[in-house]
Amino acid sequence: MSTLRRPSIRLAGKTLLIAPVLLVVTMFAFALSLLVPGDPAHAILGEAATPEAVAALRAQLGLDQPVPERYLHWLGDVLNGDLGRSLFGGTPVLDSITARLPVTISLVGAAILLTLVVAIPLGMLAGYKKSRTADRIAGLLVSVGQALPPFWVGLVLVAVVALGAGLLPPYGYVPASQGVGPYLEHLILPALALAIPGTCELFLQTRAAASEVFSEDYVRTARAAGLSTWSILTKWGAKNAMIPVVTVSGLQLDRLIGVAALVEAVFGMQGVGSLAVTAALNSDIPTIQGVVLIVGGFVLVVNLCVDLSYTYFDPRLRS
User: Fold this and answer.
1) What phi and psi values does residue 92 have, to the nearest 5 degrees?
2) What is the DSSP code string of 106-117?
3) Max CA-CA distance within the chain?
4) What proportions of the chain, in percent to the nearest 5, are helix, strand and coil?
5) 30: Cβ–Cβ under 8 A, 6 or more apart, which residues?
6) Closest by alpha carbon to 245, among 81, 101, 126?
7) CA 221/CA 134 separation, integer angstroms
8) What is the pTM of this model?
9) If you average pLDDT over every residue of the chain, what do you get?
């Protein structure tokens, strides 16, 4: 088999593995309806509802059916693109998620972009130019940055930068369609609050990987040959140190999705995270299930991309 066909075969194999994992995700999402205490029919109708009214609503929602039958019916609807309707208001869950998805994508995208732009270049440079004093100072700052909860950082940024100095808006979200300037102004502080801990962790990982690469004999030979620092960093250092860096980047992206709900709450951003929190407080099972499915699918795609990127950075893995 030619080596040219191996990456495509690897892609097909990894993609096929997503299907059984997604099936497990659907089982977990459906199990949420069984684990949440209380009766959704009672929650919708209120405590004053009569037993007859509760029984009728349970039958309407299919809650009186056996669990396997309910799961298969729900899974069939999901495969047809129907995630159900919210128990409070009757809004289609898919419409609610897609309406809020741009907010979360903007927040998480800006945070991961900020993390990559800051952490990787600084980490590569720190790994190339080793200094005990600089390492100690960087290690102290990074340790503090990792220990800061994003929601606390967000509150500090709102108090100091937005309310204190009046430099940026403290609240809300403006879509890009209403102007790039207002869009970025409302996005800077929440993205910064979300990115700081991940940036510190990625910096440490990048510095460690780069330090190991720059200790290799071929790098010392390149230095002795008089090659420039930029040439060494871009031609050998960056690519050879990327596998652990890409792994941590993928984990950071997965983590940012989970933490985004807290940052959205601090800055009053109506994203998917805040939708999930509201649904959990109201025991809105269909909405919670829909968010779990969408987020779970996104995490699987991110992990697939990270796994496939290994073959680019290390050609030995293609065989």
Assistant:
1) -55, 130
2) HHHHHHHHHHHH
3) 87
4) 80, 0, 20
5) 70, 71, 74, 75, 289
6) 126
7) 25
8) 0.82
9) 82
Phi/psi of residue 197, each to 5°?
Answer: -60, -45
Nearest Cα to Cα of residue 174 among 183, 187, 166: 183
Residue 239 has pLDDT above 80, yes or no: no
Residue 72's contacts (CB-CB under 8 Å, 6 or more residues apart) are none
- pLDDT for the residue numbered 191: 93
Confidence of residue 5 (pLDDT cuts 50, 70, 90): low
Helix (H, G, I), strand (E, B) or coil at 92: strand
CB atoms within 10 A of CB 269: 23
Q: Which of 230, 244, 243, 246 is nearest to 128 (CA)?
A: 230
Q: Find out whether 203 and 122 touch, Cβ atoms under 8 Å.
A: yes
85: phi then psi, degrees, rounded to nearest 5:
-120, 150
Those residues with Cβ within 8 angstroms of residue 133's Cβ, 6 or more apart along the chain or in another chain: none
pLDDT tens-digit readout, 193-218: 999 888 888 888 888 888 887 777 77
Radius of gyration over every alpha carbon of the chain, rounded to an integer in angstroms: 24
Which secondary structure element, helix H or strand E, spans residue 246, and what is its range? helix 242-267
What are 53-71's pLDDT values in tens digits? 878 877 877 777 888 888 8
Q: 73 in the Ramachandran plot: left (φ > 0), alpha (ψ -120 to 50) or beta?
A: alpha
pLDDT at 1: 47
| 3 pLDDT above the threshold of 70 | no
